[in-house]
Amino acid sequence: MEKPAVIKGTLRTAKGTKRVEVPANWNAGRIALTVYQVAIITGMGVSTVWRRVKLDPEFSRPRVLSPQRTVWFSDEVAEWMNRAPVDFGKGEAFRDTVWRSFTNPRYREELLDYCIRTGVIKPERVEHFLNDIERYRFGSSPS
């Protein structure tokens, strides 16, 4: 039996590092995600995810299953990511790295194709995204 494909990531926590696996098809339906999986998907840290919950009314709302178990629904996270501006907040270093990759013609097409295929960018938002990249490339801040 073949194992399902996963996206693997590592997060720094107060207790060290935590390895996290997210189903590769996380945005294909409605599945429950932990805060660590949401952090990997959005490119934010765990504390930034909680800060978004507290301060951003547009951010996906978590559901409390029990006192120690909180989950987000994958379809709501994907919907927020498609509505959100390209800059997700405190992840400036991550954003800058991705944006630099987009400004390099060698990687742009492949990276854009990957983002569309995985659901990070909706096809109808590509033009908006590329305009943000061009503004970033020439020194003005992203919208």
Gist?
The protein contains six helices and five strands; from the N terminus they run βββααββαααα. The chain is an alpha+beta fold. Pfam families: Phage_AlpA (PF05930).
Would you kindly provide a written description of the structure presented here, covering whatever features stand out?
With 143 residues, the chain is of the alpha+beta class. The chain folds into 2 domains: 84 residues, no CATH class; 59 residues, no CATH class. The protein is built from 6 helices and 5 strands, in the order E-E-E-H-H-E-E-H-H-H-H. The chain has a 3-stranded antiparallel sheet. The protein has a two-stranded antiparallel sheet with strand order 1-2. Strand 1 and strand 2 form a beta hairpin. InterPro entries: AlpA (IPR010260). This is AlpA family phage regulatory protein.
Which stretches are low in confidence, meaning pLDDT under 50 for 5 or more residues running?
A: none
Shape estimate: globular
- Gyration radius, to the nearest Å? 16 Å
Helix-strand sequence: EEEHHEEHHHH
**Could you tell me the mean pLDDT?**
79
Sheet-strand content, in percent, reads 15-25%
Q: Total strand count, please?
A: 5
Number of domains: 2
Helix percent reads: 40-55%
- Based on secondary structure, the structural category is alpha+beta
Distance between the termini: 46 Å
For the biggest β-sheet, the strand order reads 3-5-4
Number of helices: 6
Biggest beta-sheet profile: 3 strands, antiparallel
Organism: Mesosutterella multiformis
Protein name: AlpA family phage regulatory protein
